[in-house]
Amino acid sequence: MNTFNSINVTNFDLDKTLTSGQFFVWEKSNEYWVGATIDGLIVLLQPNEHTILWQTYPENNNLSLVTRYLRLDFDIDPLAIALSKDAYTKKAYDKYRGLRLLRQNVHEATISFIVSANNNIPAIRKSIKKLSTMCNRSVLFQNKEYYLFPKISAIAELSIEELKTCSFGYRAKYIKESAARLITWNLENFTRENEATIRNDLLTLPGVGNKVADCVLCYALGFDNVTPLDVWGQRILTQYYDIDPKLSYEKMRNWTQEKFFGYAAWAGQYLFEYIRNSSK
DNA sequence: TGTCAGGTTTCGG
DNA sequence: CCGAAACCTGAC
Hints:
Blueprint: E1 5-8, H1 14-18, E2 26-29, E3 32-37, E4 40-48, E5 51-57, H2 63-70, H3 76-83, H4 87-95, H5 106-116, H6 121-135, E6 138-141, E7 144-147, H7 152-157, H8 160-164, H9 172-183, H10 195-202, H11 210-219, H12 231-240, H13 249-259, H14 264-278
Antiparallel strand pairs: 1-5, 2-3, 3-4, 4-5, 6-7
The chain binds a DNA duplex through residues 21, 113-114, 116-124, 126-127, 164, 167-172, 174, 206-212, 215, 228, 230-233, 248, 272, 276.
């Protein structure tokens, strides 16, 4: 029952990764992390630097899900080389070594980051938890019920009033509308289309602007050269890289894509953790 | 009471 | 196109 599978990893720090800003659903329970994601329940344990123990519930041993979610096929060595070419990313990489970008479900990421707009992290987590509880899709694990992130159709079926009980506020109608729209999309297309095409599709969803669209590209679709530029990201560019704060979002994004050798997503993630944690 | 938070939308030049 | 204001909510 509680047999865990083991995978060997290098430069993969679960604590750093799962506490980073890409996630709102992971919880540390006793000695392992529990993620009640839209795809199922994943349990992970990190005994040392070179191994991750894992198991899935209620369906056990779902290796393909874990491989995909953790991006176990990602080659970390070229990343380290690329980030060593800039003084700030080199420092940030050294300090946050092991921090990884993973691959979330597209629906989950889109809804989560719509919620994140003009919001704070504890509130976002609370809202998403309430939403998950409301849709009542749970998995029992060691006498505790874990509520999975709802299917997109379940979210679309909720009324605006019900959604507002999750403290979504004015975002409630964006969430309902975007969920309804997402039902009709064939996400298979996202594996074929290019960055600009996907972004333009995402930007047609209510509540999705440049930053949220880039979150989906970066955190759910594996675009390693797209970093979401929130207020912190833009602060980093202006204060450390002497970028004109008046530049448009698109211009700033283009600059990061030229600057970081195809790894803007990773550069942004490391710099964000580095700057934010050192400035408070 | 007022401010602020990991943005987006809407509206007016 | 670009800048400004409004926007739910809950915690200082």
